[in-house]
Design brief:
Length: 77
């Protein structure tokens, strides 16, 4: 059972789950940025921008891993 859970993150399903949770985090960052703009809070706005950059980087890495997994699949090309 532990081995199954360990390899889950490297599977396609695990990558899709990671993509979804990372994208869901983007919603939270968007709310944070909107609140910061309404309050004219520069520090929160900077925090939201840094968080958005981290999310974008995370999504790019996950996409690359998904493509790397797809290279082995004949159907995905």
């Amino acid at each position: 059972m532990a081995k199954k859970a360990k390899n889950f993150k490297k599977s396609k399903t695990g990558l899709y789950v990671s993509l979804a949770t990372t994208a869901f985090g983007a919603v939270s960052v968007a709310k944070q940025a909107k609140l910061a703009r309404n309050d004219n809070d520069v520090l929160r706005l900077i925090d939201a921008a840094v968080s958005a950059a981290a999310i974008a980087t995370g999504l790019a890495i996950l996409y690359r891993e998904l493509k790397r997994l797809g290279d082995d699949d004949v159907l995905l090309g």
